[in-house]
Design brief:
It is built from five helices and two strands, in the order ααααββα. By secondary structure, it is mainly alpha-helical. The chain has a single domain, classed as Rhodopsin 7-helix transmembrane proteins (Rhopdopsin 7-helix transmembrane proteins), CATH 1.20.1070. A two-stranded antiparallel sheet has the order 1-2. A hairpin with a 2-residue loop joins strand 1 and strand 2. Helix 3 packs parallel to helix 5. One of its GO terms (cellular component) is plasma membrane. It is found in: Cell membrane. It is a multi-pass membrane protein.
Length: about 220
């Protein structure tokens, strides 16, 4: 199933890129944002989907390694719970994931999340500027700004993905989700994800309000 999703993702987004370049729709700011999203989605199909299948197999299809049983006699005290079921210390499934593998998966996962959030954020701001000042909005200027902001977004995404190599490290944080873990990661998440998401959500709400107000003015 992951293979199907991976191939479909790459093919579909490759078609999007071909259409954009053939029809020269990438010359505007909106086209630049869509191309950035398409490239990020291709990265998902090439790296994240295949490694997701690999990570899932490492967790669910690996033979368990159980240690020797131990049944220590314990005299229970007041309020203590005691049963005679033997304790079976077993192997840790996380030992199936070596650090180079986690670094590889974590790098592309972190880069994809950061790039997608930042691209959507700057695209939302661009649309907000257009709706707010449609008469003075310059397509040429907005295209130039879009190229700069998308370039910066890719650079920031790469930096965010590299930081855990030197500060913390990549690890499994939820099921097969690989991201950086450690004390510094909290600040990294706030800068890379939380703040841009808040800007995106607030900008989306303001954009919706402005759009409704403009449509009402046109009706009157």
């Amino acid at each position: 199933m992951c293979s199907i999703f991976s191939v479909w993702n790459v093919v579909a987004n490759a078609i999007v890129l071909v259409v954009f370049f053939m029809q020269k729709r990438y010359t505007g700011s909106a086209g630049i944002y869509k191309i950035s999203i398409a490239l990020a989605d291709i990265m998902v199909g090439l790296f994240i989907f295949p490694t997701f299948a690999s990570s899932l197999s490492k967790i669910t299809m690996t033979q368990e390694k159980m240690g020797p049983s131990s049944n220590t006699s314990i005299t229970p005290g007041p309020g203590d719970r005691y049963d005679i079921v033997p304790h079976m210390p077993g192997g840790d499934v996380w030992t199936n994931f070596d650090q180079p593998y986690l670094n590889f998966v974590g790098f592309f996962t972190s880069m994809y999340l950061t790039l997608t959030i930042y691209t959507l954020m700057v695209a939302c701001i661009d649309r907000l500027v257009y709706v707010r000042n449609s008469r003075t909005y310059s397509n040429q200027k907005s295209t130039f700004v879009a190229r700069i902001t998308i370039g910066v977004s890719w650079l920031v995404s790469i930096i965010v993905a590299i930081v855990p190599f030197f500060v913390d490290r990549y690890n499994l944080i939820a099921s097969v989700m690989v991201l950086s873990s450690g004390a510094t990661s909290l600040y990294l998440y706030i800068i890379a994800y939380v703040i841009p998401l808040l800007v995106l959500w607030v900008g989306g709400i303001v954009l919706l309000v402005f759009t409704i107000m403009r449509s009402r003015k046109r009706r009157t």
